[in-house]
Amino acid sequence: MKTYVKAYLILIAVMIFSSLSVVEAQTYKADPDKTVIIWKGKKIAGEHTGTIQLKSGTLEIKDNKPVSGTVIIDMKSLKDTDISNDGMREKLEEHLRSDDFFSVEKYPEARLELTGTERTNGGPVVVQGNITIKGITEPIEFITNMNEYGEDLVFTGHIDIDRTLFDVRYGSKKFFDNIGDAAINDIFNIDYELHMLKVK
């Protein structure tokens, strides 16, 4: 009888330990071909929209949420999509890539590194991280939606970024007086659909 009770207690202990054991993190790799990143910049006289390409990215998923990861953006891929005239569109793209804005020859990549996340009951994920643009790193927090498609994951959301924190001052009323209708909003917006593939 004592042997039976002892074996039973051992079995219960094993079950409890198993239920409390930490599930290992699963690695995911970004799919640049499927990922879509759309930017928008506004000014008094209007706005411009365009795209920029994901270069690479990895995420570690644990307890049904990201726990670490890095996403790298190819700044040289920055394009405008709202101007139909080829010459005017190319002029704007060259200006955005210049030292007035993102200095892409000197800083060809932008980077987002996760530092923490929160998720409740399978809802949206609150992401804390560090974003680096033009070699300047600043903290950022935003909300992302995380959805499963088979073994893969898709993250969607919206990010507002203050460009002046990264020494992108052109047309900013913070630094230039009396620019009137030439003023450009300090905040630019990013909408994204990030596709992550499970690493086998």
Strand residue content: over 45%
N- and C-termini, Cα separation: 47 Å
Low-confidence parts:
16-22
**Radius of gyration in whole Å, from Cα?**
23 Å
Could you explain the architecture of this structure?
This protein is of the alpha+beta class and 200 residues long. It has helices spanning 2-20, 86-97; strands at 26-30, 36-43, 46-62, 65-80, 109-119, 125-133, 136-149, 152-162, 184-198. Strands 1, 2, 3, 4, 5, 6, 7, 8 and 9 form a 9-stranded antiparallel sheet that branches. A hairpin with a 5-residue loop joins strand 5 and strand 6 (125-133).
Defining key terms:
alpha+beta; 9 strands; 16% helix
Question: What's the SSE blueprint?
Answer:
Elements: H1 2-20, E1 26-30, E2 36-43, E3 46-62, E4 65-80, H2 86-97, E5 109-119, E6 125-133, E7 136-149, E8 152-162, E9 184-198
Antiparallel strand pairs: 1-3, 1-9, 2-3, 2-9, 3-4, 4-5, 5-6, 6-7, 7-8, 8-9
What's a concise summary of this model?
By secondary structure, the protein is an alpha+beta fold. It has two helices and nine strands; from the N terminus they run αββββαβββββ.
